[in-house]
Design a protein that fits this description.
heterodimer, A: 408 residues, mainly alpha, two-stranded antiparallel sheet, 1% strand, B: 736 residues, alpha+beta, Penicillin-binding protein 2a (Domain 2), Beta-lactamase, Trypsin Inhibitor V, Chain A, 3 domains, seven-stranded mixed sheet, five-stranded antiparallel sheet, globular
């Protein structure tokens, strides 16, 4: 939660230590060269508008989707929306503040953030699991706080940040195997192994996709993507030979192909989701009038919130929201193309794609286009830390947009 | 930091952006289109299936009344006893099974096994009376047994039991009409059940607000039948006796038909059933047969027997009408002017030969020379064959059709069958010959009675109907059904001649046993050999019938009795006519038709009670009736086992003679009224009303102005009903 973000200060100091070795003069010089706040250009209003629009839609739909569940299970219709609004307000303010910070500051902390992600992932593995046998979350209870925190949220950002830095630093050397593949593979590999141990396959797939996209844009030769494909195959292979892995995957796929093989069990969520989407029809049942949210769809405020959106707003409303997401991706890429430097450009690509890929996967899961896996919908799904991280990252993209080279 | 982004990098970015936005999101939109638009309705249906809950508000079923407002069928609350086996404690199961099997009369073993089932719902018995349900609850409470409950249900009651059962029909377990009027008027009787549709969440709770709709139920309307409970009762009783008298093998039927409207006053079919327990087989012969069967054979036989007893023979089973049909042949010929009352017909031993086929008369040696009236009285076959030939193929067909014998009658009952007759192409003179005496084609009893009613009732052919009106639960008339005249087939004049010739059958001819003193009854016997099955010689099967109607001068009611396959081959004149006579003797006074006694019948005086013990009931009935006495038959046995007063007793005319048909029928005690001071008629009426016969003791019993001066036993003494009270009469003195 908010406190978790402050945790980033801890490795920050260790990074400073390493920099001390280069000498105090250099450090001072660096600080002078890149100021935290400098007078810069206007931010990209289109991108900001899209973010705020999606955020607004997201909050309205979260309230609509969650209140039945909140009332039945918590006795308070506002149980979920109360938290989410607080995070949204803090997040939007944070986003605007961050947009004023020179994003190049982040370049300095790329490794630090990466190390922090690894530490958090290890902590999650050590601590007792929060849900079932999954070590995906850190229960903040151990730190005297409320709620849970998902280290993979930091890991996603860490990979994007680190890759942007590496790609910017390597430049033309990206074409070689030594620079264009090896460092990326190693840094991704460590994260991937830790996440697969949680296990958190969907998160790994998401990060893998992001990593591949960044490498591709960064200039890694096409041929290495063949290798990446092979690596993916190996990863899948490893997963499949893990105890229980095969039958687990088989079940997932069977359910995907026909949810009705287990309508009351594993297929239940998918079936209820499809019924919600389908019964929405073209125009939807109207805002607030979903019936499937009345305990049919399990936890409608989380990963399956888009099903409620489809039921209430229909094909038309759902398409409008998808188009908003597509526009956000488009605008993100525009910002990336106009970025002043390669680091900023790569950062914009990574952060934008993170939203894009996550949205694609989420809706694909909800519509049973791909097998069911836990992935939330940006701006819509309930979850404080995820929303804060998302908005802060959007702040970074806005920061990049301030130095767009439009006139050149 | 490198300055700016290379074109190559931008190219890769653009490619990615295109893939994600156009292909990625494009696929999702297509997918959504497929789910929401293409398959939207399917998912909407599935959503409704799981989200909506319908609670039915049952509409109460309408009643059925006879024409006088007597309740024939009525719905009332009943209870269903249900087990929830999973909640029954193990140690109580045996006790529960014992208790329920005793209270509910169900198989103990079945209940005990059900108690072990892994289910929460098992019906022990449906449609249980209130008292029984209370007994079950008391038993369960007393023994602290869990898992037994009684839920409310609707049960249909038929207070008159087997009364017109094949016509009334019955309802299924779900209270919908299964047979008869109950089925035919299902929509009117059932009404519309309402429902409350509410949305429920996945846990079964109600969704809040606005997702609820209520559809009110509409109670069913009630039916008032044209059936008259009293007339139906006479039909049922006499038919039941007749079936026993003659061991009728293939069922029997009796129809009472209002000639001037087409109303069905009564329809009796045997074997019948009790609509309160329609599954139970009633026919004793069938029951005896069933006792010898087992397993699948038994189940099949039971099913067959059920369908047989549910079948409305009067409208569903066409039969060969035999000589009764000669009324139609006669009517056609008279209407066409082919014959007249002055014609004379010969009948010899040789019979009549049509294209090499010889038809002989039923009377050996023939009838000799006869007038038209006489051939009707004699039911002379050769004469009618000749008349048929004179009418000719075409005109015969024309009248056959005009009398409604080529179409169903259109009666408002389910399962009406049409007739079976020669097609036009094969209908030649040979077919005409057999058809003109009612053989070689089949009609239903209802078709026949409506056709004959037209022939004798002024020529008017009505559409038979059984529902007189529809009333709502408050008794307001919703719909009134009027008589439907189909057409006039023959002129009133012709019809009058036909009716009068039929009277001769009863007064002088083959239908004498249908005579009821005081009434002008017409009729025709029928003895149809069943030609469609090849029975061995000497084992031919017959359908014996008699169709009677009255009064001749203005026919109101027709009664048809058909006995299908009596044990011994016989004539309709001998066994069916007295049944109609017995029914007429009850029905005509009931209908308030003024008696028109002959002079002999009119004269006051005494009559000697004949000895009828040991006789078949209907023969005895005719004997007593024709001795100018009133008959009261007690029980439904086939023969008279006892009679009161005894044979040889002298009683005044029209005194009641009670015929007991079953051993052990209790003789009711009555109190003799004091009739001293009354005239003969009043004294007789008063004694008859109290159940006694009167013997007139007077110098001249037929003298006028007789007044009772003494009686034995005296007034206010107890005496078995049916006994004779001797009353002394004297001529009233002028000066008194």
């Amino acid at each position: 939660m908010a406190a978790a973000y402050e945790n980033e200060n801890i490795p920050q100091s260790s990074a400073e230590k390493s920099e001390r070795k280069t000498g105090l003069k250099d450090k001072i010089k660096n600080f002078k060269r890149i100021k935290w706040f400098a007078k810069r250009g206007p931010l990209d209003v289109t991108f900001l508008t899209l973010v705020l629009l999606l955020m607004a839609f997201g909050l309205v739909m979260l309230f609509s989707a969650s209140y039945a569940n909140a009332r039945y299970n918590y006795g308070d219709s506002f149980h979920f929306i109360k938290d989410q609004i607080v995070f949204a307000v803090v997040g939007v303010v944070g986003m605007l503040v961050i947009s004023f910070i020179d994003y190049r500051v982040l370049n300095r902390y790329a490794f630090a953030v990466y190390l922090l992600a690894i530490v958090l992932l290890i902590i999650a593995l050590i601590l007792p699991p929060v849900k079932g046998d999954f070590h995906r979350w850190i229960n903040l209870r151990y730190f005297g706080l409320r709620g849970t925190f998902q280290p993979s949220e930091i890991a996603k950002f860490a990979i994007v940040l680190l890759y942007a830095r590496l790609i910017a630093a390597y430049g033309e050397k990206m074409k070689t195997f030594k620079y264009g593949v090896v460092p990326f593979l190693i840094t991704f590999g460590i994260i991937a192994v830790l996440m697969l141990l949680e296990p958190h396959v969907s998160g790994t797939v998401l990060i893998f996709t992001l990593a591949a996209i960044m490498m591709f844009v960064g200039g890694t030769r096409f041929r290495w993507f063949g290798l990446a494909a092979a690596a993916a195959a190996v990863a899948v292979g490893i997963f499949l030979i893990m105890p229980g892995g095969l039958s687990y995957a088989r079940e997932r796929i069977d359910i995907w192909l026909d949810p009705y093989v287990d309508p009351q069990g594993d297929g239940f969520q998918t079936i209820q989701s499809l019924i919600a989407i389908g019964s929405g029809g073209i125009m939807g049942k109207g805002l607030g009038d979903s019936r499937q949210k009345y305990l049919y769809i399990p936890e409608p405020q989380n990963d399956f919130i888009f099903a409620v959106v489809c039921e209430e707003l229909g094909f038309v409303g759902a398409t409008i929201i998808i188009i908003l997401f597509a526009l956000l991706v488009w605008r993100g890429f525009i910002i990336a193309m106009r970025a002043k430097d390669k680091f900023g450009s790569m950062l914009a690509v990574g952060l934008t794609m993170q939203v894009g890929i996550q949205t694609l996967l989420n809706i694909a899961v909800v519509t049973n286009t791909v097998p069911n896996t836990g992935i939330s919908l940006p701006f819509f799904s309930y979850g404080g830390t995820a929303l804060l991280m998302l908005l802060f990252q959007m702040g970074v993209v806005l920061s990049i947009s301030r130095e767009a080279r439009i006139d050149k | 930091m490198s300055d700016g982004i290379s074109a190559k990098t931008k190219g890769r970015m653009a490619l990615l952006m295109a893939i994600v936005t156009i292909i990625g999101f494009g696929v999702l939109i297509v997918r959504l289109f497929n789910i929401q638009v293409v398959n939207g309705e399917d998912y909407q249906y599935r959503a409704t299936q799981q989200q909506l809950r319908e609670i039915e508000i049952s509409a109460s079923r309408g009643d059925i009344y006879d024409r006088n407002g007597n309740i024939i069928a009525k719905s009332a609350t009943a209870w269903t006893v249900v087990l929830s086996p999973v909640t029954i404690k193990e140690e109580k199961k045996e006790l529960l099974a014992t208790g329920l099997s005793e209270i509910l009369d169900v198989d103990k073993k079945t209940v005990r096994e059900a108690a072990d089932k892994d289910t929460s719902y098992w019906v022990v018995k449906r449609k249980v009376e209130r008292e029984v349900a209370e007994e079950v609850i008391a038993f369960v409470n007393e023994n602290k047994i869990t898992g037994v409950s009684c839920t409310e249900d609707i049960k249909r009651y038929y207070p008159y039991g087997s009364f017109a059962s094949a016509t009334i029909g019955f309802t299924n377990m779900d209270n919908s009409g299964a047979y008869g009027i109950e089925a035919y008027y299902e929509k009117i009787l059932a009404g519309n059940s309402g429902k409350i549709v509410s949305a429920k969440n996945a846990k079964g709770g109600n969704m809040p607000f606005k997702h609820e709709m209520m559809y009110e139920s509409e109670d069913g309307n009630s039916l008032v039948l044209t059936i008259d409970e009293t007339i139906q009762h006479y039909l049922d009783k006499n038919l039941e006796i007749a079936v026993k008298e003659h061991n009728v093998g293939n069922g029997a039927m009796a129809i009472a038909y209002a000639i001037k409207t087409g109303e069905l006053l009564g329809v009796s079919v045997k074997p019948d059933f009790d609509p309160n327990t329609p599954q139970a087989i009633t026919d004793e012969a069938t029951l005896a047969l069933l006792a010898t069967l087992e397993g699948e054979e038994y189940t099949k036989a039971v099913q067959q027997a059920q369908f047989r007893q549910w079948r409305n023979k009067a409208i569903s089973d066409p039969y060969e009408p035999g000589s009764v049909f000669k009324i139609i042949t006669l009517a056609s010929a008279l209407e066409e002017g082919i014959v007249n009352t002055g014609n004379v017909f010969g009948c010899t031993d040789a019979g009549v030969t049509i294209q090499g086929q010889t038809i002989t008369c039923w009377k050996r040696g023939g009838h000799g020379q006869q007038t038209l009236s006489e051939i009707v009285q004699h039911s002379c076959n050769p004469a009618f064959v000749n008349i048929g030939q004179m009418v000719g193929v075409n005109k015969f067909r024309k009248y056959f059709e005009a009398f409604g014998l080529m179409e169903t009658t259109g009666v408002d009952l389910p399962g009406e069958a049409g007739s079976i007759y020669h097609s036009d192409s094969v209908f030649g003179n040979i077919e005409l010959a057999s058809s003109s005496i009612g053989q070689s084609f089949k009609v239903t009893g209802l078709q026949l009675i409506s056709a004959v009613s037209a022939a004798v009732g002024g020529g008017y052919l009505y559409e038979p109907y059984i529902v007189k009106s529809v009333i709502d639960s408050e008794g307001n008339v919703v719909e009134e059904y009027e008589p439907t005249l189909r057409r006039q087939v023959i002129s009133e004049e012709t019809s009058k001649v036909v009716a009068e010739m039929c009277e001769g059958v009863v007064t002088l001819g083959s239908g004498k046993l249908a005579y009821v003193p005081g009434y002008r009854i017409g009729g025709k016997t029928g003895t149809a050999e069943k030609l469609d099955k090849n029975y061995a010689e000497g084992e031919e099967k017959y359908a014996l019938s008699f169709l009677g109607f009255a009064p001749i001068d203005d026919p109101e009611i027709a009664i048809l009795v058909v006995l299908d396959e009596p044990e011994e081959a016989n004539y309709g004149s001998i066994i069916a006519a007295p049944v109609v006579g017995a029914i007429m003797s009850d029905v005509l006074p009931y209908l308030g038709i003024e008696p028109q006694y002959t002079e002999e019948e009119q004269a006051a005086g005494n009559s000697k009670v004949p000895d009828v013990i040991g006789e078949l009931v209907h023969d005895a009935h005719a004997d007593v009736r024709n001795s100018y006495l009133t008959v009261n038959v007690v029980g439904t046995g086939a023969t008279v086992v006892r009679q009161v007063p005894e044979a040889g007793t002298t009683v005044s005319k029209w005194s009641t003679v009670i015929l007991y048909t079953e051993e052990g029928d209790a003789v009711e005690e009555g109190v003799v009224p004091n009739v001293v001071g009354l005239n003969v008629k009043d004294a007789n009426d008063m004694l008859a009303a109290a159940g006694f016969s009167m013997e007139i003791i007077a110098e001249d019993p037929e003298a006028d102005n007789l007044v009772a001066v003494a009686q034995t036993p005296e007034g206010d003494t107890a005496l078995a009903e049916g006994n004779v009270v001797a009353v002394e009469f004297e001529v009233k003195k002028e000066d008194q």
